[in-house]
Amino acid sequence: MNQLHTTNSWRFLGVDSIPQYNKLTTDVQSNVIVGVIDSGVWPESRSFNDYGLGPVPKRFKGECVTGQNFTRINCNRKIIGARYYNKGYEAVNGPLENTNQTFFRSPRDSDGHGTHASSTIVGSKVSNVSVYGLGLGTARGGVPSARLSVYKACWFGGCEDADLLAAFSDAIHDGVDVLSISLGQRPPQQIYFEDPISIGSFHAFQNGIVVSASAGNKFFPGAAINVAPWILTVGASTVDREFPSYLLLGNLRQLKGFGINTTPDQDRGKLYSIISGSVAAASGIPSTNASFCKNNTLDSNLIKGRIVVCMLETLNDDRKEKAIAIKEAGGVGMILIDPLAPYVLFQTVVQSVLIGKAEAAVLQSYMDTEKNPTARIYLTVTSSGIKPAPVMAIFSSKGPNIISPDIIKPDITAPGVNILAAWSPLATKNTLGNHIDYNLLSGTSMSCPHAAAVAALLKSAHPYWSPAAIKSAIMTTATLTDNTQNFIRNDDSTIATPFDYGSGHINPAAAIDPGLIYDFDTNNLIELLCSYGASYEQLKKLTDTPVYCKNPPTPSYNFNYPSIGVANMAGNVSVYRTVTYIGEGPTSNSYYVCMLSPVTYVKHDNEDVISVFESRMNRLHTTNSWRFLGIDSIPQYNKLPTDIQSDVIVGVIDSGVWPESQSFNDYGLGPVPTRFKGECVLGQNFTRLNCNRKLVGARYYSKAYEAVFGPLENSNQTFFRSARDSDGHGTHTSSTIAGSKVSNVSLYGLGSGTARGGVPSARLSIYKPCWFDDCEDADILAAFSDAIHDGVDIISISLGQDPPQQIYFEEAISIGSFHAFQKGIVVSASAGNSFFPSTATNVAPWILTVGASTIDREFPSYILLGNLKRLKAFGVNTKPDQGKQYGIISGGDAATSGIPSINASFCKRNTLDSNSIKGKIVVCMLEELTDDRFEKLTAIEEGGGAGMILIDPLAKYVLRQSVIQSVFIGEAEAKELQKYMKTQKNPTARIYRTVTNVGTKPAPAMAIFSSKGPNVITPDIIKPDITAPGVNILAAWSPVSTKRTAGNNINYNIISGTSMSCPHVSAVAALLKSLHPYWSPAAIKSAIMTTATTIDNTRNLITNDDSTNATPFDYGSGHINPAAAIDPGLIYDFDTNNLIEFLCSYGATVAQLKNLTDTPVYCKSPPTPSYNFNYPSIGVANMAGNVSVYRTVTYVGEGPTVYFSKLEVIAGVKAWVYPDVLRFTKSGEKMTYRIDFVPYKSSNGSFVFGSLTWRNDVHMVRSPIAINVC
């Protein structure tokens, strides 16, 4: 299933000032035919009148296919062809009539999307057009004399693959010159040979047709789709017009909002009382739920006659539903806090405006300080000449290109925000039931037709140019500056990059005369695909004829594309391009060579290092947890002799170690295992005496870091040029894994007890490639190489690059860990702390990827308000409090002279008035999640404040010490506090000392920061694999690391992060290695995953921070369970050969595989389907029909046994297991089973989840299932 990506713009683009085009005769201009594959057309729209157009071009072979409410009369000399396709849709979803929605079984458009796109391209000029008076002027397409052929392949917002391919086939047959396709699949992009738009557009390219396609509206890096190099991929940006609806507050402050408020009775010229939805909760509804203003959540007595301030629960919320809920309860208006405020214009049943983050902060400050706040919503106006413009739209999908990363995508950006164009009057879902003929929409669906129109314009002026030449002209003439002559920026004011806008903003006037072009043909495209390892079968699917790759293929970066990308620079590279001169006067074709060198070249003498590439930066990801995991109740492990327990060596790649910590004493340990080949490398403040029988090895690496940043001494920070840790992170992770037992450990009395690692008898070998929180690729690879050489059994690596994850062949941790896997070493790595879906890193299938969750202990520091209400907060307040109430004041109310209230609310330095805050507790807000919280404390302390209450969504995850009392509170507590402060003239509060609470329920719960799946590189592999304790973990620390300890030198610290959960899993892997020394890394991984639990300590399903049920994309297979993992019953094993087959299924090239294996490896043809890789979890990322998935299990128990299967129901998919009973007679026996999946309902681009569990009398072997049904 594909999804629709949802005229002043042409003036903004200067299309009327192109003499070369405007001087062309009408018959030349009208000889160009544009095909639009979309939701159809509303032929009666004035935008499709054919006044002044001559006969239909004779070369056009299309048809006007009749159907429901569509006859041949509906075609004319503008709409010269119209077809529709529904067989694919009905084969998957059943008859159209089953939908109970308005539709026409014909090319007629009931959605509006296709009409809007078509009129943007070729719409005739129509005067006096507006949406309720907004944007009044002449509506027109970019090429109003061009012809239109309509191909309707989309129904109810979805477009099936088979229907799209049929539409492409007909469009090619009919003889169109340009194809516009404003739709696509949800990311990640499929490989080109399996994606209908890529396949159809390739055939179009072969036939000389330019294809323009939308990049998608998925916000994030790596999310761009329709990225095949033969497609013109279009991002979205703003124009210099917007539609503000201003908000006047009772204090006469004016805020800019956005909406469609166009009737005078919506603005009665008066101020209305305003109330927050959370304060107006109906009986029995939590305030948080009411804040979202959904149906039946608001108390009509409280909101009657008022404007209600609402929030979004998710970006996908139905905004109109909120307005209806308010009207039904008697409210008169809505103010919605919405990050998409400028981009989402819609009509509602009451006055409504959408406001952004900055305006919301001002509004909140006003409501906090005013007893009876009021506001007036003004009528919406049209504002032109806005600066800066263009600006990249926040929603526009971004590069890099995850399929062919040497091809920069998107290619171009064009107007895609609040575009006014023709509409289907029957599409009333977004128009309050009103029948309108023109509408305002935003999306890359709106920018794509702009690029298609410019391509048509060029085709008129240069009818013999190839699709590649037209594409080159558009790309190479694009502009990088806005109308203020500064660089184009993103929505957050950062400077945009080619992964945002491609070559820049489209410039039609320059594109018509580009001077030089980069041309390429089908043969060049075949060579490019060969360079990425395309198989014979894949190429035949594109070309319909046998095609063979030459050997060796031309490097992918030498494909003659108008942009230049080198995605894997492993040394000096020569890039070639050929340009064609298409100007006038004497000249010749030109060749050039661009010599590029990596920033740093770090040579490592160890022969295990097989490749060198440009070094990138990685970041560090941050003992009761072992009691929570029941580590002491594992008799199989605890009965092992110490010499066996201590024969396991764990390598830790991190920021080093503080060797004097009590956690690294070697009491009771015997000699270092003779097989260990490592060293204790000397350095600054580090001698051989710092190693012992616990710390058996220590190395450090700084060549790459210094090659990039210069000498370490330039940092002006504390460091040691040795394996000694000045950061604390490496000491913390190492002691979590293998720290010796140390009694009476605490952080200022918090968490008091015995500190220990999960395997306190194991050995540690330390590898330090990290300096000042950053770790260079080349240093990391050197560390992996040494760890493998030294003979470690486990590698723990709590660091990684910022998302999105790079492909495995270009990413240091993936490469290093593959070599470790080859040598029988388990690698456990943190998934990252990036909060959002698709941000999990370290996701290669040979890595054990770890998310973070809570344990049943927390450290609250309660606040007592003057009304005796108690709020739960979090902090490290360990000194005796003064036992008295202090006055409290909002930072926004304590602004120093000349500082706006909103700025002061963030409590940064030099923003607070010391006279106002002296002796008081100051209530502060975060400007960004990355704010320096310690800076706020310092500002308050320097101003004489007595304490700080910080409103922080990470309240329970960020424990910081401070010189004054401070606590962090969450959203619910913040609302209670603000409510109290608004109703009390002299509010007061007392911050109590922090306490340790054990036995907290529910636990575990997923940490809000823990990076989530799906896996953006190999989506059939569910990631993360597992979750483990990662919140408020107490472990050893470097006493010289005082940045997070208020300057105090401490030996143990409490921190949170997937960096803390990763070592827990590393320790469990070491525990299993002690008991099962001959198990492979895959077997250990399987044992950990298949025995994990999805239940918390209340016997309910594990939840996320927001109390929703967690899924495999949050926790993988579940929460780690060491006691069960030690005896899993069955395991899913795989080796390097299986991994190679798996990588081949994703199109890995010979060169890429050699990067991993150090020897030439060739893929068999056809490859084994990726979903049949013998992984302990089961994923099918693109289920386009019935699928059979195979797995092989190995019995590792004792004696004969029988396992029975149990399948958890998967929404929209029927499933059967064959055989459903497995009978084993002896340990080591293998059996293969098959799961047959039969989808009967699309999952609409989302994954649906289930599980398969094999159980006997003792064991439960569970595999989560994740399926995306197309």
Automatic annotation (TrEMBL):
Domain Peptidase S8/S53: 30-486, 646-1117
A GO molecular function held by the record: serine-type endopeptidase activity
Signal peptide start-end: none
Hydrolase in keyword set: yes
Subtilisin-like protease fibronectin type-III domain segment(s): 1172-1267
GO BP term, pick one: proteolysis
Matching Gene3D superfamilies: 2.60.40.2310, 3.50.30.30, Peptidase S8/S53 domain (3.40.50.200)
SUPFAM superfamilies, per the entry: Subtilisin-like
Residues of the active site: 38 (charge relay system), 113 (charge relay system), 445 (charge relay system), 654 (charge relay system), 729 (charge relay system), 1059 (charge relay system)
Record key words, sorted: Hydrolase, Protease, Serine protease, Signal
UniProt family annotation: Belongs to the peptidase S8 family.
Name listed for the protein in its UniProt record: Uncharacterized protein
Record organism: Ambrosia artemisiifolia (Common ragweed)
